[in-house]
Amino acid sequence: ISPPSPKHHQWHSLSSPPPSSSSSSSFFTFKVNSTTFTFTNKCANTIWPATLSNSGTAPLSTTGFILPSGTSLSIQAPTGWSGRFWARTSCSTTLNHLTCATGDCGSGQIECSGSGATPPATLAEFTLAGPSSTKDFYDVSLVDGYNIPMMVVAANGGCESTGCAVDLNNRCPAELRVGEGCRSACEAFGKEEYCCSGVYANPSVCKPTVYSEMFKAACPRSYSYAFDDPSSTFTCDAPADYSIIFCPNPLDPSSSSSFGEDDGSSSPSQKSSRDGTTEPTTKGVVLEGGESWLANLAMGDDAPSSRKNFSIFHQFLLIFFLIYLLF
């Protein structure tokens, strides 16, 4: 799949706040035109999805809403819209100020009003076809870390789905854990080689790391680091509609082989917070629950569809870590 233009990946510019909207209905639609996004919450608990439009694109009719377990909500986006979606979790209100354990946008309200997610947060990113293009581009990104399983399913049967159906919080290395989420190596360590910045701001120099390879093995279709486009960015002929599913069933045949297989625990785990900057270590590949997942990862058994992503060097490196842990 050919990667989109560089604009597709400039996700940190803020747009003007779109108008607020609210409703008590579990399913409702905001009519604009072009593309319909339907958000479905299959998690055990209420979540607070949020939207962020890129600068230069028309804002959506809402920037945040409440989505109880088992409900859906649809909004529409205009031609050429570009932006991202994510879920805020474990939110509570104190003195009329909303705070969330993960994905908090800092607005203190249900509406994020042009503010982005605080990492870690699983992101669904879109660039819809405009006047000069006929295809939509989309991906599910773990570049800003992970907080909740997510899938993007195109209504057009000829277009591919993408996402991460597994609970990566159960597989998060100790030094990446924070609260109820799993940070990216860039967020945790702040080093150029993990962030693909500075002298590493080039795909020929910034390569996958042990951390991004672990995410890639568990969720082979998700965007695991800054230059992961060839295997993780998808296209669909416009116009098309999309479903964004939070906490999809990891045992569903449509998700188990393409989006990673879970270990049977589908609800995000509760982690204790780690403050400050940490350093990557060999011990960092020890995952909660023992070394079994690392063993499968080293042998390529956890995600068969992603084996082609591993070079002989990376497989050797992971096997070396496994031997180190065992002896």
Automatic annotation (TrEMBL):
PROSITE patterns: THAUMATIN_2. Residues 254-271 have a biased composition (Low complexity). It comes from the Eukaryota. It comes from Dioscorea cayennensis subsp. rotundata (White Guinea yam). This is Thaumatin-like protein 1. SUPFAM superfamilies: Osmotin, thaumatin-like protein (SSF49870). InterPro entries: Osmotin/thaumatin-like_sf (IPR037176), Thaumatin (IPR001938). Residues 1-11 have a biased composition (Basic residues). Residues 1-23, 254-284 are annotated as: Disordered. It holds the Pfam family Thaumatin.
